[in-house]
Amino acid sequence: MTQERLWQVLDASWGDPRILSTLLCSSVAAVVLLKWLERRQIQQKMKEARRARDLALERMEKAARRFKQENPGTQTAQILSLTMVELVEKLKDGSLSPESILYTYMGKALEVTQEVNCVTDFIHGCEDQLQKLKNQKEKGLLYGIPISIKEHVDCKGHISSGGMVKFLGQVKEEDSVIVQVLKYQGAIPFVKTNVPQTMINYDCSNLIFGQTLNPLNHQKSPGGSSGGEGALIAGGGSILGIGSDVAGSIRLPSSFCGLCGLKPTGNRISKLGVVSPIVGMESVVPALGPMARDVDSLALCMKALLCEEMFRLDPTVPPVPFNEEVYTSSKPLRIGYYEGDGYFQPSPSMKRAVQETRKLLQDAGHTLVPFVPPKIDYMVDELFTRGIFSDGAVHLVDCFKGDIVDPNLKSQFNTYRLPALVKRISAIILKPIYPRIARDLSALCGVGSAKNLWDQHGAVEAYRAEFIAKWRKLRLDVILCPALGPAFNHGYAGKLFAATSYTNLYNVLDFPAGVVPVSTVTRADEEELKHYRGHYGDPWDKRLKEAVEGAVGLPVAVQCVALPWQEELCLRFMKEVETLAHSMKRNV
């Protein structure tokens, strides 16, 4: 009898003393029984967390229904149709109330999560926050704007699990710095959103809260790890969200769901009060940033966050306020561009999106210069993969103690937990057949010593200097490049972690990078995809082709990049791309 079959028997006969005593007579069965008991305890914790979520959503639904009954004339459709900038103006002049907006979005968020399972908690303190706003004389830049928060960002009175059982039951005693600053600016955090287990994945599934679907096509992933944010905003249930990004976790769901998203320079926004499975990893730089339906919303959010209150709460954040003059400039730009990175061949729609955007920018008077990212294979394998898993993935694997691995993560997890010797031998065997996969396995062994870690950090610095030198030589202002997409079919993200090469480059470099939707997948793109071979012809190339199949009509984005601490210039470039893409759609 297999272990799985034994567990099924135990589940069916739980509480029968005859079966339990019989099993305890066998030492092997006793070990299985102990494992089963541990598994049952884990499942019970998950069940309790789901029950807490359901009760929170019931409370949210009652509050939204009560407001609707008491205010039958609320113009729900009108509120949901307004941009964030328009909402801010109407809140400022009093033509709309914070109550009408908050409860409207609460109702819409409930609708969206019933469809795609994206909300994990109701931040019930939002109603108290609403009352406090009424008594405040000063109106912050985000006065009355409801905001959704990625699940692992701390909110007082709520858990931040990161999709992991080990963090369940740990109710946070205070808000993260970013949430405190949002409240200071008058925003109202009202829900927390789903993430993949451990968040080192760009799908959006965990065994606690389940799989989140893409609202544009339920057969597709919303991306991740900020996938709950992507799904909720794309579904219309939030107008502004806070995500995080260590390999593309803001930019990928924004690409998959047709949103705008910004990954700032790592320390431009405080990260105090955020749960992570890889605390202490310094080689690849994570960041918190905004996700929304348009670039102006991202800019307003950044302007609100970069204030004295953030600099006071976290003195490690450089006290540099938002530069409005840079964002609103209309000076022509000198733009580097590339259509592929040489590591993963772009899908046809990814490549077309860059080509069309390049032409639009050229026609608008900007200068476009071809750019080739240096040593991309080296960057992905030796700087990103060996860097983020510099400990040989030990910290990440440890997170699964007392947990059950989500099926969508098993491919990654099974590779990570292999002994270093097995990874090295496998890499040697695979090198002649699948050199890219072999290099990845070798990199997953980590650095091996403190000396090697110092060397690895030095290599990142040297690569950054080389990249900037090439940028300066071409006298570039910004770079235009592909964003991975379109949205993947379910189950593929965990088997293609290395396909984040287009986004993880800018975490290694610690450059601000944003994503803007510019087009949709055409039937011609889908037809061309049939001839996709990739650069290596290995299983990863085959999987990427399968991952993006069946995406006609789904959004396609481009990525916009600036040098460190130049978020305003990055956003200005994103705004230019957005404006030109919209004008092209109107003229078609």
Short description:
The chain has helices spanning 3-12, 17-24, 27-70, 76-81, 84-93, 98-116, 126-135, 177-184, 227-234, 251-257, 295-305, 308-313, 324-328, 348-363, 376-388, 394-398, 410-416, 420-430, 435-443, 450-473, 501-508, 523-529, 539-548, 567-587; strands at 119-122, 146-150, 188-193, 205-206, 210-211, 240-245, 260-263, 287-292, 334-337, 367-370, 478-482, 513-520, 555-561. The protein is of the alpha/beta class and 588 residues long. An eleven-stranded mixed β-sheet has the order 1-3-2-6-8-7-12-13-11-9-10, sandwiched between helices.
Descriptive notes:
- The protein has 24 helices and 13 strands.
- The chain has 588 residues and is an alpha/beta fold.
- The strands form two sheets. It has an eleven-stranded mixed beta sheet, with helices on both faces. Strands 4-5 form a two-stranded antiparallel ribbon.
- Strand 4 (205-206) and strand 5 (210-211) form a beta hairpin.
- Helix 18 (420-430) packs antiparallel against helix 19.
- The radius of gyration is 24 Å and the shape is globular.
- The mean pLDDT is 95.
Rg, alpha carbons:
24 Å
| Proportion of residues in extended strands | 5-15%
Assembly state of the chains shown: single chain
Terminal-residue CA separation: 64 Å
What does the average pLDDT come to? 95
Q: Structural class of the secondary elements?
A: alpha/beta
> Can you give the helix content as a percent range?
40-55%
Strand order of the largest sheet: 1-3-2-6-8-7-12-13-11-9-10
User: Could you tell me the number of beta strands?
Assistant: 13
Low-confidence stretches: none
Question: What is the overall silhouette?
Answer: globular
| Biggest sheet layout | 11 strands, mixed
Protein name: Fatty-acid amide hydrolase 1
GO molecular function: amidase activity; fatty acid amide hydrolase activity
Binding site for substrate: 199, 225, 246-249
EC number: 3.5.1.99
